[in-house]
Amino acid sequence: MPLTTRIRRTARRRGSLLLCAAAATALLTSACGAAAPTASGDAAAPPGKDDKLTITVYSKFTDREYGVVTAALNKLKAKFPNITINHEGNQDDDKLTQSIRGGNPPDVAISFYTDNLGAWCSTGSFQDLKPYLDRDKIDLNQIPEAVRNYTSYQGKRCAMPMLADVYGLYYNKDKFAAKGITSPPKTTTELLQDAEKLTEFNPDGSIKTAGFIPAMPFYANQAQYWAPNFGAQFIGPDGKSSLSSSPGWKAMFEFQKKLIDFYGGHDKVEKFKAGLGDEYSADNGFQTGKLAMMYDGEFRTAFIKDQTPKLNYATAPAPVLDSMADHYGGGFATGTIIAIPKGAKNPGAAWELIKQASLDTDTLVDMANGLKNVPSTKDSLSSPKLDVPPQFKTFLDIYGSGKMVANPSTPIGDAFLKAVNDFAEKWQAGSVPDLDAGLKQVDAQVNDELAQKGSGG
User: Fold this and answer.
1) What is one term from the GO cellular component aspect held by the record (predicted)?
2) Cα 457 to Cα 455: distance, rounded to the nearest angstrom
3) What digits encode the pLDDT tens for the residues 193-234?
């Protein structure tokens, strides 16, 4: 997959989460705080068939992907031939925030970063779409529950999904066969056992080939991608951080430690990691055969096809905690969101474009085939036009499983994710002597930020 996809995913999750999450969240919430919440009202009327107007769209898409999305957006011209779509790519959330704050927003906003949704919604920076959904009698049940969850906040629907990312397990079939492993692991116990079988050490005890690396942060190893596999909950029913009260977190970190201990400790794992290539390059550890298994999203299939086409691999749902066998087949999901910003000049036309990009089967399938992401409605999943290689089908099955989990939307953006991932890094390095006490400390940190935001901080 091209560099633009690498930039797109990095901006959406890893870069914002691990490099500048706190600063980005502060900018977003302070900028959005200048916009008063939008009062619910009537939906703006759609344009007439012969109306001439321009819909401005902001997105982060560039290069080839920009062309794919622009072509999909222009499908609206079949219904409204005199409408012009002005698609401005390479516009990130900061630029979008500034445009709303300055009173000159686009008509349609496309964002890769779903963890900002709570701030967008709670401040009214994204308009409530309920009046439009009600007027047009849209059945949201055609969108999986997890996806409906990450496009709404506290019952307010201020965005729609436009394609999705789904995470699962990648495994090297040749390495499995060489060790007599006939099927992918379904439980975390099996994952641990298979990882040990698949690992090879050099004579000096250093790692030559790893069955599965548990370190965080590393490639797609982050707490939010792992949490569904252990039933770990970020936020409890009371709206507070629940790491110390959700048993899955302790199970997850104990699993991580077992595998790190097997490899000989944190230092040996870090030394091995240092010799692996960039996540999005052809030198990715899985693509070069240095990793037998790893977690990643459906987009990795396109990277492999482009960079390492001879790799003999398969995909499967991520293994789950042994006591959660009935949850196998699900996984973590996130995706691109599309919305009407506060102050949009053509909200009625914007909604027509959003319907096209988030609900029209042919439009979704064209984008899914071009971008190699999962289309976000049930009808688009079963379209005969959808390109479905066997490795990609795994992610379609996860998407349609009814067992997907998404991150909760909070008014503090991704600050809670950063807190957990920072803790994971300290834990694996042996800097946390008491796991239970450490989880309680993370709860206190997150709850303090939630309290400050709740009081207008």
Assistant:
1) ATP-binding cassette (ABC) transporter complex, substrate-binding subunit-containing
2) 6
3) 999 999 999 999 999 999 999 999 899 999 999 999 999 999
